[in-house]
Automatic annotation (TrEMBL):
Alphabetical list of Gene3D superfamilies matching this protein: Calcium-transporting ATPase, cytoplasmic domain N, Calcium-transporting ATPase, cytoplasmic transduction domain A, Calcium-transporting ATPase, transmembrane domain, HAD superfamily/HAD-like
Residue span, P-type ATPase A domain: 130-224
Stretches that traverse the bilayer: 71-90, 96-113, 245-264, 284-303, 625-645, 657-675, 696-715, 727-745, 752-771, 783-806
Domain of life, per lineage: Bacteria
Designated name of the protein: HAD-IC family P-type ATPase
Membrane topology: Multi-pass membrane protein
Keyword terms, alphabetized: Membrane, Translocase, Transmembrane, Transmembrane helix
Keyword Transmembrane appears in the UniProt entry: yes
Region feature (Disordered): 1-37
Compositional bias segments (type: Pro residues): 27-36
Name of a matching Pfam family: E1-E2_ATPase
Translocase listed as a keyword: yes
Location in or out of the cell: Cell membrane
């Protein structure tokens, strides 16, 4: 008889050395051969009948949709009508604004098409291919190649891609929370139904496809969720709000301008039409939407080159707003693989026998996780041993198990999992486990079960046999990435199912601030407010269940945090789905890739800073250039109102404002929109832009109108209007140039060069005779031009003062 804590390594018939888990091996029912699946001929017949899963996973809009979205816009329609009118009534230089719109639209279509090609290519690389059994052999096929009646093999982390009926099940547990909202996994047995959109949390098996294509439960939902989109972001919704207000202002102002120029003023018809159009066109911030689309599209292309698949475009913006990132340790801070460092028998157990048990446990699992794979690599399967029952690993249980026939009439049941879950509190082995965890090592406990695997608590009364010490491989880029988040004031929280002390030691090796503040999730408070306080106070959390991960994300969000969640395992799916931004590794389970907005196809955690930086570049730069565009809209509307009230000719022809817009907005905005920008993204986009645009536009309009009215009093004669227009144009250009100079801060060599180049280009127009004639700009005399410069200087100084007061007294 063996003593307590020992393992009988021989073939003893002693009752104390055997666990009776059912029938003896020779009485076991004969193994049922697996179903062979469809034959090639049956697959061909199904394809011919159209019984194919023909729901394409779309990562982007089609080229026709891209063209339609860029061409058929409200403002393109307005500009297009005005352009056609100008082509008939005015010289070609007054129609330049129309050619600019055509060029802008073409650029937008081309850039989004490039982004589409990038996304489509990455989607193919990152596409998970289900394993389908045909002609008796398993093989990977594309999701769209599955036919009705196919036998599809599934395991932990696999997504159920079509509806079906379970035909084989080995401890199969399926999470249907994405469909039903119920978080608890559902045990599936042969004959049970599985629904597309659910995923496997434990065990394995096979199911036969009963509904494919658009008949499948989640097909329409999945197709819609997978589309490349430019909506549902604060940035784009804010721009839409601004454009709505602009439209409301434009309509009555434009009507008033038309009446004043064509009816009230006794002007030449063609000249009146040209100046009316010159007043309406600059009210339209036509380039703002274009630049936003281009900035997003180029962001997708840049990230695509780094093997980062952006499944939902606003994720670039969302990650830039993140202030808390929750990291799963395994696969994120550490590489997927592990190595067995040592096997430490307990209670006098024989190490050679323990290795045979571990080898048999590994051989009995067709889909081993990273920990068990390390055991398989270190412990070969023993000859003559047979697995008679299994309990798949579950992240909720924290252990797996198997009943083994050792080939000599000995039948035992073993469990392999977390020591602090399987051991009683105060057990001697826990002290040794804690010491190993403090060194950053992962420890598994091999225990001999006291009963069968089908009981409510198979781990109850388990007898400890050996500790399996695993060494995790740290990701070489993880330390630099954590340092980046620290520099950017983004709090990192490590949330893992492993032992908290072990996780803290790993995080400490990587230099994570607060890694010493570890917390066992089994002690977490249930109340959301208390949970959020605990999360704010601590950095590393261990023994976290999948449901707790989800609760933790929700608690952080309730505290006002914008949360990103990274992970690659099936236990991360619920948290990834609920986080503001979900980030999955390319090598992660199919389920995690399906719910994540961003997939790192190269499995490199170091790509995340690039995504954050890209998002910050887009948001910060679009906020800057939006101010440029909307200052123009405000001063255009106000100028038109002042002209209507004063019953004077509108001071500008379309060519003048085309020149000003190109030099002070169009060209510089393109460079500024694509420039590096590390500013942390801030909320309230509309308020941030309008608090600068309104006072800036008002000052610019008043300064320009003052110069115009002064010039009207100074110049006399029937041909004085061109001189008045030239003086007003000079003032407006200088004020707009100063707005550009403010927006371009902080200065770098190229930003200074950009502003200087725009100023130089305007001087060239004023100095070259044929350009003077082309743009109808000629400064007459010296008094009025210098007066225009003086008024512009005063206006520029006023804008500087007012914007600083806005910063101080009207914080967002």
């Amino acid at each position: 008889m063996t003593q307590r804590g020992q393992v009988d390594t021989g073939g003893s018939d002693s009752g104390n050395s055997r666990i009776d888990t059912g029938a003896e091996p020779d009485a076991a029912p004969p193994a049922v051969p697996p179903e062979p699946g469809l034959t090639s001929a049956e697959v061909a017949e199904a394809v011919a009948r159209g019984e194919v899963n023909d729901v394409p996973v779309r990562s982007s809009r089609s080229l026709a949709e891209i063209a339609r979205a860029n061409i058929f816009t409200r403002f393109n329609a307005i500009i297009g009508v005005l352009w056609v009118i100008m082509l008939f009534v005015a010289p070609i230089q007054d129609s330049l604004f129309g050619f600019v719109i055509v060029a802008n639209t073409g650029i937008g279509i081309f850039q989004e098409w490039r982004a589409k090609r990038t996304l489509d290519g990455l989607a193919v690389i990152g596409e998970a291919k289900p394993t389908v059994r045909r002609d008796g052999r398993p093989g990977e096929v594309s999701t769209s190649e599955i036919v009705l009646g196919d036998l599809i093999e599934i395991g932990p982390g696999d997504k159920i891609v079509v509806d079906g009926e379970v035909r084989e099940a080995d401890g199969l547990e399926v999470d249907e929370s994405l469909l039903t909202g119920e978080a608890d996994p559902v045990v599936k047995r042969p004959g049970d139904e599985v629904m597309s959109g659910s995923f496997v949390t434990a065990g394995g098996g096979a199911f036969r496809a009963t509904k494919v294509g658009r008949e499948a439960y989640a097909a329409q939902l999945a197709e819609e969720a997978s589309r490349f989109t430019l909506v549902h972001s604060e940035l784009r919704s804010g721009i839409s709000t601004i454009l709505k207000y602009v439209t409301w202002m434009m309509v009555p102002t434009a009507i008033g301008l038309v009446v004043s120029q064509l009816v009230v003023r006794d002007n030449d018809f063609k000249n009146a039409v040209a100046r009316t159009v010159g007043g309406i066109v600059p009210m339209v911030p036509e380039g703002l939407v274009l630049l936003t689309s281009v900035a997003f599209a180029i962001g997708v292309i840049r990230l695509g080159r780094k093997q980062c698949l952006v499944q939902e475009l606003p994720a670039i913006e969302g990650l830039a707003r993140v202030d808390t990132v929750c990291l799963d340790k395994t696969g994120t801070l550490t590489e997927g693989g592990m190595d067995v460092q040592a096997i430490r028998p307990l209670g006098g157990a024989d190490e050679a026998y323990v290795r045979r048990v571990l080898g048999a446990l590994g051989a009995g699992d067709p889909r081993p996780n990273a920990s068990l794979q390390a055991v398989i690599d270190a412990c070969p399967a023993p000859e003559g041993w047979r697995t008679t029952g299994t309990l798949p690993f579950s992240s909720a249980r924290k252990y797996s198990g198997a009943s083994l026939d050792e080939g000599d009439a000995t039948h035992r049941t073993w469990l392999l999992g977390a020591p602090d879950v399987l051991l009683r509190p105060g057990a001697e082995a826990l002290a040794e486990t804690d010491a190993l965890n403090e060194r950053g090592l992962r420890v598994l406990l091999l225990s001999r079960a006291a009963g069968g695997l089908d009981g409510p608590d198979p781990g109850a009364g388990a007898e400890p046999t050996a500790l399996v010490v695993l060494e995790q491989r740290l990701r070489p880029d993880a330390a630099d990435t954590l340092r980046y988040f620290e520099d950017q004031h983004v709090a990192a929280k490590v949330i893992s199912g492993d032992n908290a002390v072990s996780v803290g030691a790993v995080a400490g090796k990587l230099g994570l601030p607060g890694a010493e503040r570890t917390y066992d999730a089994r002690k977490l408070p249930k109340e959301p407010e208390a949970l959020a306080d605990t999360l704010d106070e601590n950095t590393v959390f261990g023994r976290v269940t999948p449901q707790q991960k989800r609760d933790m994300v929700g608690a952080l969000q309730a505290h006002g945090h914008t949360v990103a969640m990274t992970g690659d395992g099936v236990n991360d799916v619920l948290a990834l789905k609920d986080a503001d931004i979900g980030v999955s590794m390319g090598s992660g389970s199919e389920a995690t890739r399906a719910v994540a907005q961003i997939v790192l196809l190269n499995n490199s955690f170091s790509t995340l800073p690039s995504v954050v930086a890209e998002g910050r570049r887009v948001i910060g730069n679009i906020t800057r250039v939006a101010t440029l565009f909307l200052v123009k809209t405000v001063y255009s509307v106000l100028l038109a109102i002042l002209v209507v009230l004063s019953q004077t000719e509108y001071p500008f022809l379309p060519r003048h404002l085309t020149l000003l817009s190109t030099l002070t907005i169009g060209v510089p905005a393109f460079f500024l929109a694509l420039a590096p920008n590390k500013e942390r993204a801030q909320p309230h986009f509309v308020k941030r832009v309008m608090r600068y645009a309104i006072p800036g536009g008002v000052i610019a309009a008043l300064a320009t109108f003052t110069t115009y009215m002064t010039a009207r009093a100074y110049y006399t004669g029937p041909d004085s209007l061109p001189a008045e227009t030239s003086a007003a144009t000079l003032t407006l250009f200088l004020v707009s140039l100063w707005v550009l100079a403010i927006i371009a801060r902080p200065y770098t060599w190229w930003r200074v060069g950009l502003v200087a180049t725009m100023a130089g280009a305007f001087l060239v127009v004023l100095a070259v005779p044929w350009l003077q004639d082309f743009f109808a700009l000629r400064l007459v005399g010296s008094v009025m031009p210098w007066a225009a410069v003086g008024i512009a200087v005063i206006a520029a100084a006023l804008i500087e003062v007012v914007w600083r007061l806005v910063d101080r007294r009207l914080p967002v």
